[in-house]
Write a structure and sequence with these properties.
406 residues, 4-stranded antiparallel β-sheet, 7-stranded mixed β-sheet, 8 helices, alpha+beta
Length: 406
């Protein structure tokens, strides 16, 4: 375990980076090379263009130097560059200054964090002006979890609809579409819960699922897992419903590897008069969560609500991870661990809102089907979206808003 003293690490890291940056600028100046023209440098010095691109990023780091730490070339690559620039007439003093600064930078890494990979993870978590400062870590986690679990998906979709109930306008009608796009197995024998449907009310009590109904039926037969058959490309026989004490799991079973077995899968449910549209002492807020139950490249999380529900269109965003939750109350706050993610909400343009995105094929058709099936006027909807690359596996991304007073 590495104990980082941030108070001393940041100044040391900045100082080592600044010394190396200054030395590289002096080196390029000694041969008349342009720091912001990496392609010209690659041709002139006859070195790899990726190397000169990284060096250019280091030299042109005008804001926070920690943002470009990952671009610092390794010792071997830098030696090659120094030899090439020396042949172009660089002074021995300029070459030596870069070599010494590179060694000092490596010594700083060894002293404070141990290795470059750890340095990049630590700096990734610090942020320094980048809203999405943990994207590198999330991407690494996506790749690792994909291999470990034997499954991955292109997109996780969560779409929530809210409209006033026709008979009791102080109550809410709701519909929820859950989906995965481009699911594929990386192991033939994989068995994994793709969807984990849970509902929680006041004080963490489990909500009954009996009032939620499948949006689509097929040949008047029961649809217990609420498959949206007309938009899914999955064979229902490879999915198993597993009831738990707190809800339902939709479990994928084994099958073909890779693109040969790739499919899209959607569930859609609705409930009339599902909840109060006004706050109570027990329920002052409304919230919806998208559980990231499989390694996924992107999350699309939309709220589509009646035009009078302004209170829901600027939700707070949080991401909660759980550890050892199998034997505990999933609603217990102590089992929820916050994970930093970007919190930018985009207002969807248009009336009705334009939801189309390349990440979800036929998405506009899905939304229209839900609205038509439930007798809702599309023009009465407004919408907002959270879009997140590489959402953390095993977490629940939550959109939460304050309910209005009655």
């Amino acid at each position: 375990m590495i104990d980082i003293d941030k108070k001393h690490f940041e100044p040391a890291c900045r100082a080592a980076f600044d010394d190396l940056r200054a030395a590289l600028l002096e080196l390029y100046a000694s041969v008349g090379a342009d720091p912001v023209s990496p392609q010209d440098a690659a041709r002139r010095f006859k070195v790899n263009k990726t190397l000169t691109w990284n060096v250019s990023k280091v030299m042109s780091s005008a804001s926070d130097p920690l943002e470009s730490v990952s671009n610092v070339p390794g010792s071997s690559a830098l030696r090659g560059l120094l030899e090439a620039v020396r042949r172009e007439g660089a002074s021995a003093k300029a070459v030596e200054r870069v070599r010494a600064a590179s060694e000092a930078f490596d010594k700083m890494i060894e002293t404070y964090v141990g290795d470059r990979a750890t340095l990049e993870l630590i700096v990734d978590g610090m942020g320094h002006g980048r809203e999405d400062h943990l994207e590198i870590s999330r991407k690494l986690a996506f790749r690792g979890n994909s291999g470990l679990l034997g499954i991955q998906a292109k997109t996780r979709l969560m779409t929530v609809f809210m409209m006033p109930n026709a008979e009791s306008p102080d109550r809410l009608d709701m519909a929820i579409v859950r989906g995965f796009v481009g699911i594929r197995r990386l192991r033939a024998d994989v068995r994994w819960p793709l969807f984990q449907v849970r509902g929680w009310g006041a004080e963490g009590e489990a909500m009954s699922n009996e009032h939620w109904k499948a949006l689509e039926t097929r040949d008047n037969e029961p649809n217990p897992m609420a498959f949206l058959h007309r938009f899914s490309t999955v064979d229902p026989s490879i999915m198993q419903e597993v009831r738990t004490a707190h809800g339902m799991d939709c479990v994928l079973t084994g099958g073909p590897l890779g693109n040969a077995g790739s499919f899209d899968c959607y569930l859609a449910e609705y409930s009339r008069s599902a909840a109060s549209r006004f706050r109570t002492v027990e329920d002052p807020v409304g919230e919806f969560g998208a559980t990231i139950s499989a390694p996924t490249e992107r999350l699309i999380f939309d709220l589509l609500v009646h035009e009078s529900f302004d209170f829901a269109l600027k939700p707070e965003v949080s991401c909660e991870g759980g550890i050892f939750m199998g034997g505990t109350d999933p609603a217990a706050a102590s089992s929820h661990l916050p994970i930093p993610i970007p919190s930018s909400i985009t207002q969807l343009p248009g009336r009705p809102p334009v939801v189309a995105t390349p990440a979800v094929p036929r998405y506009s058709e899905i939304v229209s089907f839900v609205q038509e099936r439930l007798g809702w006027q599309a023009a009465q909807f407004r919408g907002c979206r959270l879009e997140l690359d590489f959402p953390p596996m095993g977490s629940t991304v939550v959109l939460r808003f304050k309910l209005p007073e009655r």
